[in-house]
Amino acid sequence: MTSPIPVQAQLPPARSWGGELRAMLLLAWPLALTNLSQVALLVTDTIFLGHLGEIPLAAATLGGNLHFIAMALPFGLAFAATAMMAQEKGRVRGHMREMRRTFRQACWLGVLVYIPIAVTLWNSGPILRATGQDPSLADAAQTFTRAMMWGLLPFYGFMLLRGFLSALERPRAALWVSLAAVGLNAVLSYALVLGGFGAPSLGVLGAGIASATSNAFMFVGLAILVSLDRRFARFRLAGRFWRADWRRMAELTRIGLPIAGTMLLEIGIFSGTALVMGWFGPAAVAAHAVALQVASAAFMIPMGISQAATARVGLAAGATDPLGVRRAGWTAIGLAAGFMALTATLLFLLPDRLASLFLSEEFADTRRLAATLLMVAGLFQLADGVQVAAAGALRGLKDTRLPLLFAALGYWGLGLPIGLLLGFPLGMGPLGIWFGLAAGLAVVAVLMTLRWRKLAFLRA
Fold first, then answer.
1. 370, 72, 361, 67: which is closest to 204 by C-alpha?
2. How far is the C-alpha of 440 from the C-alpha of 21, rounded, in Å?
3. What b/e readout covers 252-285, taking b as 16+ CB neighbours within 10 angstroms?
4. Pure H helices in 71-134
5. Angstrom distance (rounded) from CA 440 to CA 417
6. What per-residue confidence (pLDDT) applies to 14?
7. Rg (CA), the chain
8. Do the Cβ atoms of 335 and 25 come closer than 8 Å?
9. Residue 80 near residue 62, CB atoms below 8 Å
10. What pLDDT shows up at residue 4?
């Protein structure tokens, strides 16, 4: 059977810094573009909901933040599976069997954790009201999350398949599927949010349905491509799917829970600030949403570099190549820092232009606030890129516990308290909250880099 996926040669082990840079770029760019396409799904919803006003946009933001918090545990398990499969691939001998078993146990764990997550998302309205949110906003946000939650498990399956392809250094299939999903989501959002093509205008419910459908499409599409391509089908990922491997499941849990905790702390700090913004009113929530969308889009590039670092470091560690481990990690950190320096410049120079992409002149005050927050986002771009790249490199070594402590200290021990102090007692409002975010990210970046420096030195 011919392969429906463009041919992509296996990347050889890098024997120099230049070779590692080339290998990292070849692996990172499809992963980064895949991440961007996933952000594009949310950006599409934000743009369409922005035409309906501040209330629908704010409701989708609150609901979306709860959804991302709920995704922390599945994300952690998926990243743990990627690291394990990369090291198994690096060892070469018996890697097909080992990778298949890891994939299988990660699937079962994902199904188990989805059940309590779905129950929580279904009752998101009372949760939001308990945090002091406006009841109308909480109810609208619950409508959004109840639709979105049906796409969560398929998206987890997509993440696992993408991790499998990343460990093989052949991630482009996930990119093609994600790009197709962006187009599908745009069509569905236009129809279901605004009532295009004669469809009923469902507002936030329509945005949730469109996103869930697109997530399901990504999983089904990628599963079909993997099953049809002989290079991937020979792994027989679904083979003996019912067989348990308790030791491997325990290892996935041991590695994945700290990753999930780290992500929960990171996602939670941004989601928590969205809840705090609700205390300033819907305009502040909408401005926060716009600024966060732009910052998140920029973050997806170093996130792709981080995912490539996990695979490259894991492959080198599995092959017992300490110099390869060192090169892969430092190359990823340098690439992420360089890119985020460029995005910081863009945010400083064009904040008004970027904010105008989401909010019309009708909401001029909200747009000005969003532009101001974007300039603050420019302050933490470099730190955000460095910390995520270093974290990805550490995951490649299965080092996940100390990064969890770093995130707890930086985001919640320092960042949030500083933001609350600046925002309320010192009267800086939403701007102060974002200065707190910048301080927390800077601390985490320094700690993550020092941890990587120590481990890389020990291995080199």
1. 67
2. 29
3. bbebbbbbbbbbbbbbbbbbbbbbbbbebebbbb
4. 72-91, 95-122, 124-130
5. 10
6. 53
7. 21
8. yes
9. no
10. 37
Q: What is the pLDDT of residues 328-369, one digit of tens each?
A: 999 999 999 999 999 999 999 988 888 888 777 777 888 889
> Which has the closest alpha carbon to 85: 107, 100, 73, 75?
100
What is the rounded CA–CA span in Å between residue 79 and residue 272? 23
What would the two tokens of residue 14 be?
A: 């890098």
pTM, entire model: 0.83
Between helix 17-50 and helix 204-228 the angle, nearest 10°, is 150
Amino acid letter at 90?
A: G
Residue type for 362, please? Answer: E
pLDDT value for 7: 33
The total of other beta-carbon atoms located within 10 Å of residue 65's CB is: 25
- Helices in 397-429 by DSSP H: which ranges? 401-407, 416-423
* Alpha-carbon span 114 to 324, nearest angstrom: 37
Q: How many CB atoms lie within 10 A of CB 1?
A: 7
| Cα gap 60→155, rounded to integer Å | 19
- Separation CA 202–CA 146 (nearest Å): 14
H or E, element range at 277: helix 246-278
Helical ranges in 195-245 per DSSP H:
204-228, 230-233
Give just the sign of the alpha carbon dihedral 340, 448, 290, 379. Answer: negative
Q: Name residues of the chain where pLDDT drops below 70.
A: 1-15, 92-94, 459-460
Beta carbons of 122 and 146 less than 8 angstroms apart: yes
What crossing angle do the helices spanning 282-318 and 152-167 adopt, rounded to 10°?
30
CB 112 within 8 A of CB 249: no
Q: Which two tokens stand for residue 296?
A: 């998140």
What whole-number distance in Å separates Cα of residue 186 and Cα of residue 40? 9
- What token pair was written down for 175? 């990119």
Rounded CA gap, 357 and 352, in Å? 9
Tokens found for residue 317: 């560690």
Which is it for the CA torsion 23, 26, 29, 30, positive or negative?
A: negative
239: left (phi over 0), alpha (psi -120 to 50) or beta: beta
Structure tokens at 10: 């296996």
Structure tokens at 351: 């904040």
- Identity of the residue numbered 44: T
